[in-house]
Amino acid sequence: MMLQATNVHKQFDGQDVLKGIDLTVNKGDVVAILGPSGSGKTTFLRCLNFLERADRGELIFDGERFDLHAATRQEIARIRKKTAFVFQNYNLFLNKTVLQNVTLGLTVGNGMKKQQANEIAVRALEKVGMAGKLSSYPSQLSGGQQQRVAIARGLVSNPEIIYFDEPTSALDPELIGEVLSVMRQLAQEGMTMLVVTHEMDFARNVSNKVLFMEGGNVIESGSSKAFFEHPTQERSQEFIRTILEARK
Amino acid sequence: MNERLWNILLDALPKLLRYGVEVTLPLTAISFLLALLIAVIVALIQYAQVKGLKQLCRFYVWIVRGTPLLVQLYLVFYGLPSVGVVIDAFPAAVLVFGFNEGAYMAETMRGALESVSRGQMEAGYCVGMSYLQIMGHVVLPQAFRTAFPALSNSLISMLKGTSMASTITVMEMFRQAQVINGRVYESLGLYGEVALIYLLFCTLLSWFQRLGERRLASYGGAVK
Predict the structure, then answer these.
(1) Range of the domain at B83
(2) Do B127 and A109 touch (CB under 8 A)?
(3) Cβ–Cβ gap B126/A49 under 8 Å
(4) pLDDT band at A73 (very low <50, low <70, confident <90, very high)
(5) Looking at the partner chain, which of B120, B122, B127 has a beta carbon nearest the beta carbon of A153?
(6) Which one, of A54, A98, A50, lies nearest residue A74 by Cα?
(7) Average pLDDT, chain A
(8) What is the pLDDT of residue B50?
(9) Cβ B96 vs Cβ B72: under 8 Å
């Protein structure tokens, strides 16, 4: 077991956004977190990396136990060193080149020598097909290119797990494929991934587990095969049906 | 133009320029650096919501923006000695100009900091940087770029404002013009001449501003 979150609660302005979420992720799992908008899936993901502070909840990460509400700054830094986060809006550092975006966490954050960081970064950028744009600035790239750089930025710290928060939702339709194919490649290499997404094909064919959320609750979770072929809950069935119909 | 006036103006030019270069420009530069330091600190305190200090910063901005620069100069130079605080004219001017423009620039910087997307901070945390590292490498540089035109305005307005130091006996360029005029009574010519020199200085600053903006534009696009 690589990660286990238990009973995660979160309120915004007195509104319950997460009402006790549980999730277990094993090494090599690709978990798709699905659900209609407003179901709390992004908030849940952000709580796991302390971008939001949960009101309650426990996290076991890599054999260590953390309080999602009361974790200390050191504990948070320790978790973040082992994780990477890919944002919906990429959040590349706008004043840095592609190469600098990828090396900054290594050199500044972790005190690595510049030359070594550059080598690692170039390798990661080659992997996502962005090594040809080392000195471009984010504003000179398409959304798909920016997101691939963001993935490379996450890869260089050798994370145990990568969190993806709707990584393709801000992209033009024709750019979604290039990002998904990078993610598929990572999955095939055994990277552990937790992906909030609306991409049903990805959830069905790439992820091996699904967490279906609605209204701050987990409605159904299990293998993605079972979820798509034999959903047990009425809401899941309805959700899958709506998605499939929307595509026709 | 008669020959006498022409000779007076020609005679005054090197003197005025000398005081411009040796006093007005350093006074502006030092005051501006002080103002910039104050502005960044005050803006960061407000941006980071440091309790207690934040109220102090609001208070400072409130006082400084709500009172005239000339009155502040008089208070510090002529007023403070009566409570035992005696500051020489030049440092007094630096302090007043620095703290005065610093208040306006703090507001500029605060707005610029707030215009930097919070996602930049989050991304920095997620790649293992600390708050200060992210501020130093990502957020502040972007904020400076946004603030650059407004800060340049402040610099230009400060350069002209240093002429007010003449009222607290600082022998700077305008004061020198007054002194010369006291001997020869050619107000229109001499004050016109000194105005042209200020115009020249400000024009040079505007060029530098444009140059700086072009350099800062290297990473292109709008700051989100």
Answers:
(1) 3-218
(2) yes
(3) yes
(4) very high
(5) B127
(6) A50
(7) 95
(8) 87
(9) yes
Q: How far apart, in Å, are the Cα atoms of B211 and each of B152, B159, B204, B216, B223?
A: 12, 19, 11, 9, 19
The string of pLDDT tens digits covering residues A10-39 is: 999 999 999 999 999 999 999 999 999 889
Mutate which of A45, A99, A104, A162 to disrupt the B interface (most B C-beta within 10 Å)? A104
A contact test, residue of B113, B127, B135 with most A CBs within 10 A: B127
Which residue on chain A is closest to B224 by alpha carbon? A94
* Type of residue numbered B29: A
Element (H or E) spanning A240, and its range? helix A234-247
Bridge partners of residue A220, in order along the sequence: A212
Beta bridge partners of A10: A18
pLDDT digits (tens, 9 = 90+) for A132-174: 999 999 999 999 999 999 999 999 999 999 999 999 999 999 9
Q: Which helix (H) or strand (E) holds A103?
A: helix A98-104
d(C-alpha B224, C-alpha A192), whole Å: 31
Q: B122 touching A, CB under 8 A? A: yes
Q: Per residue in A96-145, pLDDT tens?
A: 999 999 999 999 999 999 999 999 999 999 999 999 999 999 999 999 99
- In a domain, residue B42? The reply is yes
Q: How high is the pLDDT of residue B1?
A: 65
How many distinct structural domains can be found in chain B?
1
Residue-level pLDDT at B43 = 95
Chain A residue numbers with beta carbons less than 8 Å from the beta carbon of B122 are 51, 85, 87, 91
B132 touches chain A (CB under 8 A): no
Residue B129: give its domain's CATH number: 1.10.3720.10
Q: Is residue B201 part of a domain?
A: yes
Contacting B with CB below 8 Å, chain A residues are 49, 51, 77, 80-81, 83-85, 87, 89, 91-97, 104-105, 108-110, 137-140, 150, 153-154, 157
pLDDT tens for residues B137-161? 999 999 999 999 999 999 999 999 9
List the one residue out of A84, A123, A89, A134 whose CA is nearest residue A105.
Answer: A84
Q: Is residue B224 situated within a structural domain?
A: no
Residue of A nearest to B141 (CA): A95
B102 within some domain = yes
Q: Is the pLDDT of residue B223 over 50?
A: no
